[in-house]
Amino acid sequence: MNPIKPKYELSEKTPGEYFLNLSGDWTTLNQVPSHDVVIDELKNKNSRAIKFDCSDLGLWDSGLLVFLLRINSFSEKEKIKFDDHGLPEGVRKLIKLANAVPVVDNQEKDEIDMPLLDRIGSTSLRVKGSAGDMLDFIGQVFLSFSRMLTGKAIFRRSDFFVYMQ
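^ thats the sequence. predicted structure below, dont judge the formating
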């Protein structure tokens, strides 16, 4: 079975309302079209909404999701309604899931780009902040252990036998 080349057609049905017709096999094995052309067309026109027609859509995978997520991100930024009702149910669920997860700020990547002295300084500040917590924990463990050795520890016998099992 030969894959069908992925295509899209953006058309304006009513003023400001665009339909994106997706057809073919939108898999990473095929070369998925760039989302930039769609975004440029939506930018240059007075767009209020984008809807989808996937009646001719074949196979799809993450290539389609990336394409749609970038259009979705643009539409959110530009206050364009992203109407996903014409998309397959699985795609709609995955887009909803991707949008539900908050963006993670990758602090470690930022620190790699920092100069050496900045990295040393930020690391030492983090260690200084957590050193007090670490010493507090070690002190609590020491006090509890010394109470246990002197027989003054507060410990229920039932808990002792549970831990012994």
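The longest helix spans residues 116-150.
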